[in-house]
Write a sequence for this structure.
């Protein structure tokens, strides 16, 4: 067992989500959203490098020392998989490790709206799961992919950096490709996917114009495409996709998006009132011809009233989801206020707490 594995096992045992090993600081665990230092002295750069280099091969070490950043996945047998990011900083080497549970949870297990299972029934179009880093996007997407895998015979291609949840073939055939190991990049893998007879394509991160453009094209070609963006709600998601393109292309992109966008699930994690965990809150947008008209006409601000009108179909605004958690007694007024989009709705509750 590598020396660093002891940290990983302790992280799992304490219910933590992330391990921080940074030269010049003591090791830290993120537990229920809060970063907590371990009762250890600060690590020297040499100590950090010794821990980090023990679990990578010469090729990864060369890549790290050449580019000063490295992303990969690492598994501790019998414990869990970890998403690893190595970086260089002012005081030397450092790394952050995110735990990836071995068991893929269902939509119901995650406590997210079960209406999003509808997106797994689609045969084409674009579905986006959005939110900041660490909001559980990958976990929600893994649940959707597992739902497809359990119910239909489809070819599912995932493009990830790195591969997080490892799916076993059930009814579907899963082809999981890791950027850096199995393909040069998201765009290259997306171009190739069109020739690999897919039914479903998951794009781990739609981070640039080329990747977003290719994802839209794949959705237009009749594939079901799942992707992620770092946006907090549905209107910002639509704006983000359109704004990444040059102005002269935006009208064409609006038309493509109007036809292909089937849904947006935005997600945040709120610290629970008892401090013993976190719970998900979600905004849910479901596509329709009416939504297509809103996007095509550039009236993105109307998406909020569109979601409000679609509550009977399972749509909901982020702030409504936060308010529901607050009324259930799951989260504090302070936590609700801090994560709300329209803070004025929560201000009186926050002040009286």
């Amino acid at each position: 067992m590598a020396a660093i594995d002891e940290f990983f096992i302790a992280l799992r045992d304490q219910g933590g989500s992330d391990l921080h090993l940074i030269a010049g600081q003591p090791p830290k665990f993120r537990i229920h959203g809060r970063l907590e230092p371990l009762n250890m002295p600060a690590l020297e750069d040499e100590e950090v490098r010794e821990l980090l280099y023990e679990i990578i091969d010469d090729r990864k070490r060369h890549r790290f020392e050449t580019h000063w950043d490295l992303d990969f996945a690492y598994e501790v047998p019998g414990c869990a998989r970890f998403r690893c990011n190595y970086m260089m900083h002012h005081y030397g080497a450092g790394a952050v490790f995110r735990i990836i549970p071995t068991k893929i949870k269902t939509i119901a297990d995650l406590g997210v709206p079960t209406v999003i299972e509808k997106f797994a029934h689609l045969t084409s179009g674009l579905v986006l799961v959005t939110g900041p880093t660490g909001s559980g996007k990958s976990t929600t997407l893994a649940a959707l992919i597992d739902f497809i895998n359990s119910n239909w015979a489809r070819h599912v291609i995932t493009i990830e950096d790195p591969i997080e949840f490892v799916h076993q073939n059930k009814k579907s055939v899963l082809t999981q490709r890791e950027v850096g190991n199995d393909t040069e990049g998201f765009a290259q893998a997306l171009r190739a996917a069109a020739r690999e007879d897919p039914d479903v394509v998951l794009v781990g991160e739609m981070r640039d114009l080329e990747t977003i453009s290719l994802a839209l094209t794949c959705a237009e070609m009749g594939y079901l495409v799942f992707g992620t963006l770092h946006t907090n709600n549905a209107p910002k998601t639509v704006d983000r996709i359109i704004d990444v393109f040059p102005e002269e292309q935006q009208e064409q992109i609006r038309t493509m998006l109007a036809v292909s966008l089937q849904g947006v699930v935005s997600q945040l994690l709120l610290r629970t009132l008892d401090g013993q965990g976190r719970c998900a809150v979600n905004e849910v947008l479901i596509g329709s011809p009416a939504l297509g008209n809103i996007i095509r006409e550039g009236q993105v601000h109307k998406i909020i009233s569109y979601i409000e009108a679609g509550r009977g179909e399972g749509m909901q605004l982020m702030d409504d989801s936060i308010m529901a958690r607050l009324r259930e007694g799951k989260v504090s007024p302070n936590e609700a206020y801090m994560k709300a989009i329209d803070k004025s709705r929560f201000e009186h509750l926050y002040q009286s707490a």
